[in-house]
Design a protein that fits this description.
This protein has helices at about 30-45, 50-55, 65-80, 100-110, 125-130, 135-140, 140-160, 165-170, 175-200, and strands at about 15-20, 25-30, 45, 85, 95-100. With about 200 residues, the chain is mainly alpha-helical. It starts with 16 loop residues before the first strand and ends with a helix. Residues about 1-15 and about 20-25 have low confidence and may be disordered.
């Protein structure tokens, strides 16, 4: 009697698509997907407006996200079973989202995959300088912008230090690390602009 071959299953690729028991079809996960899920992992439950506010004070400091796509993403992830959704019974009857176990697993699979793509540096001022513009004229006001952003990030970090240690070591660990990196980046940008202007 011929033996039946043992069925094999292929390992999923690191979090590029997701399909849950409640989903109708697999969806492709993007950096916007992971931004939404990462914020929900920190916030617990949120409306799309709550997520947008949190995005502007955190992720957008180092990763720009199109707002139209961002607003639509929670519903798309909920359809795939990566988020749960409930509607408020009264008032504005807003939709509130939370991360499901499947969403948490997809987020962790992506975040824990080693490495990342190279950073994308885009600076219109630098393009103007390359084209022959006077660096002092281009960057005269930029130093003030970076100093204001530096003060903003330092304020966030100071506020975060009031959070209990166990939370900072848990769901707020990533936020704290990116704030430290953002503060270092703003210092470097201020130094670069001062050197560029002085050299000219």
């Amino acid at each position: 009697m011929k033996r039946k071959p043992t069925p094999t299953t292929s390992a999923p690729t690191p979090a590029t698509s997701a399909l849950s028991a409640h989903a109708r079809a697999p969806i492709r996960l993007t950096t916007t997907s992971y931004a939404v899920m990462a914020l929900l992992e920190m916030l617990g439950e949120a409306t799309p407006y709550d997520l947008k506010q949190a995005l502007e004070h955190s992720i957008e400091n180092f990763w720009p996200v199109p707002h139209t796509t961002f607003y639509e993403e929670p519903a798309r992830l909920a359809d795939a079973g990566l988020l749960s959704q409930r509607q408020e019974p009264g008032g504005r009857r807003r939709k509130r989202y939370t991360l499901t176990d499947a969403g948490h697993d997809a987020l962790r699979a992506w975040a824990d995959t080693p490495g990342s793509g190279p950073p994308q540096y885009r600076d219109e001022g630098m393009l103007k300088v390359f084209a022959g513009a006077d660096p002092q004229a281009v960057y005269a006001g930029r130093g003030d912008w970076h100093r204001a952003k530096l003060a903003e990030l330092e304020g966030y970090l100071e506020s975060l230090r009031t959070v209990p240690e166990e939370q900072r070591a848990g769901q707020w660990r990533g936020a704290q690390a990116t704030l430290i990196a953002g503060i270092a980046y703003q210092h470097q940008m201020i130094d670069m602009i001062e050197r560029l202007i002085e050299r000219d």
